[in-house]
Amino acid sequence: MKEENIKNKFINATKWSAITEIAAKLVSPITNMILARIITPEAFGVVATVTMIMSFADMFTDAGFQKYLVQHEFKDENEKFKNANVAFWTNFGISVFLWMIIIVFREQIAVLVGNPGLGNVIAIACVQLLLTSFSSIQMAIYRRDFDFKTLFLVRIVAIFIPFVVTIPLALLGLSYWSLIVGSIVIQFSNAFIMTIKSKWKPYFFYNIKILKEMLSFSIWSLIEAISIWFTSWADVFIIGTALNQYYLGIYKTSIAMVNALMALITASIVPVLFSALSRLQDDEEKFNNMYLTTQRFVSIFVFPLGIGIYLYSDLATRIMLGSKWKEASSIIGVWALTSSIMIVLSHFNSEVYRAKGRPKLSFLAQMLHLVVLVPVCIVSSKYGFWPLVYSRAWIRMECVLVDLIIMKYAIGFPVVKIFKNVMPTVVSAFVMGVLGFLLQKISKGLLWSFVSIIICSLFYFGILCLFPDMREDINKILGKGKLKLFRKKYVIACDKEN
C-alpha cells in the first residue's frame, strides 16, 4: 500500500474512531451512573464473574485470527476474503464447542468461580460466544481497511441499547439479568449490522493450508491473549473466591469506571495505531515516529487525568456511582494514578510487538508479569481486601519495567526517547498535583472542589506552555482540537526523510 494512501486512510480512520469512542465514552458512564443507583454491588459482582468466564472462552473463539487479518499483507481482495472465511468457520465451530462444554459443566464452573447455584446464568450469558464469532472477523476487516465509519454506526447503536433494554429491565427488578440480557442484545446488534454492511459475507469455503498458515501466527496471539486474560482477571478470581460478591462488585465496577474515563483518550487511538504501525512495520524511522507521536499526544491528557482522579476520588465516586459506593473511592483513586503511568509507558508496547509480527514478545511480557502478580495477589488477599487493592494497583509498575526492557533489547527501540518525549507532561502534571493537594487544604466543599479543578487544569496547561516544544501543540489543542493536532503530527512523522 502506498504511503500517501496510508496517510489519508489513517487520518480519516482516526477521525471516525475518535468520534466513535468519544460518543461511547460520554454515554456509557451515564448508563453506568444510572445502573449503579439501581442495582446493588453484589449484582455487579455476579456479572463480573460471568464476564470473566465468557472472556476466557471468547479468546479461543477468536483464536488470534482477528489480529492476523489486520497485520498480514494479502496479495489481493480474494485472498483476504478466503482467509476471513477460514477464520470465521473456525471461530464459529470453536464457539459452539465451548458453549456446549459450558452448558454441560455449568454448575461445576459456577462453584469454581465462587458463584454456586448460578450455573444456568452462566450458560445463558455465554450464548454471546456464538454472536461474537460473527462480529470478530467482520471487525478485523473493517479495521484493516480503516473503515471506522461503519464501526461508528455499530458502536453508536450499541451504546444506546442499555437505555431501551438494560435500564428498563433493572427498574423492573431483574438485577443482574438486566445486565446480561442487555449484553446479549448488544452483541446481536453488533453482529447483525457489521454482517449486513460488510463487503465480505461468510460463504462455504474452507482450506486447511490457509488455516495452518494463520495458526503459525495466530497461535502466539492466542497464547498472548490467554496470558493477558490471566493478568486481567487473576485479581477478580481471587476476590470472588476468597472474599464475596459485594467486594468483587465494588472492585470491578470501580476499575471499569476508571478504565472508561481513560478510554476517552486511548480507545479512539489504539485500534488505528495498530493498523498504522502494521503498515509502517518495514520503515523503522517512520514506525518510531508514529509511536512517539501517539505516546506524547496521549500523555498530555492521561497524566493530569490520572493525578486529578487520585486527588478528587471522593468527588469522582459521588458523581459516577452515588452514595452507596463510598468504599469505591480509594480504589478509583489508586487505579487512576497507576493507570496513567501504565498507559503512557506500557499500553502501546503490545501494539508494537504485534505490528512487528512478534506476538511472542507480548506473551513473554505477560508471563514475566504474571509470575509476580499472582503471588502478590494471593499473599495480599490473606491480609484483607484493601491490601489486595493497593498491591494489585502498584504491582503494575513491574509490568512497565518489563515492557521497557523488551522494547530496548528485543525491538531495539530508543527507550531514552520515550522518557524525553513525555518529560514536559510529567513535570507539568506533577506540579499540578502539588497545587491540587494544597487547594484541597483550603476547603472540602463541593463548589470549591469544582473551582479548584478548573484552577488546576488551567495551571497545568500554563506550565506545559513553558516548554517551547509543547507551546505550539497546546495552542492547537485549545484552538483547533486535539484530533487535528494528532493528524498533523502523524503526517510530519511520516514525511521525515530517511
Summarize the entry for a quick read.
84% of the residues lie in helices and 0% in strands. The C terminus is likely disordered.
Distance between the amino and carboxyl termini: 18 Å
Largest sheet: none
Radius of gyration (Å): 23 Å
Count the strands?
A: 0
Total separate domains: 1
Uncertain spans:
480-498
Strand content: under 5%
Q: Roughly how much helix do the residues carry, as a percent range? A: over 70%
The secondary-structure class comes to mainly alpha
Shape: globular
Order of helices and strands: HHHHHHHHHHHHHHHHHHHHHHHH
Quote the average pLDDT: 80
Total count of helical runs of at least 4 residues? 24
Characterise the protein shown here:
The chain is mainly α and 498 residues long. The chain has one domain (3-495). It has 24 helices and no strands. Helix 2 packs across helix 4 (77-104), helix 3 (65-71) runs parallel beside helix 7 and helix 21 (415-440) packs antiparallel against helix 22 (446-464). The longest helix is centred in the middle third of the chain and has 35 residues, at 208-242.
Characteristic key phrases:
498 residues, mainly alpha, 24 helices
What is the topology?
Blueprint (H helix, E strand, L loop, with lengths): L2 H34 L4 H22 L2 H7 L5 H28 L1 H7 L6 H7 L2 H17 L3 H17 L1 H6 L4 H22 L10 H35 L2 H22 L3 H10 L4 H28 L1 H8 L7 H20 L1 H7 L3 H23 L3 H10 L1 H16 L3 H26 L5 H19 L3 H13 L1 H14 L3
Helix pairs in contact: 1-8, 1-12, 1-13, 1-24, 2-4, 2-7, 2-11, 2-12, 3-7, 4-7, 4-11, 5-6, 7-10, 8-10, 11-18, 12-16, 13-17, 14-16, 14-21, 14-24, 15-16, 16-19, 16-20, 17-18, 18-19, 18-20, 21-22, 23-24
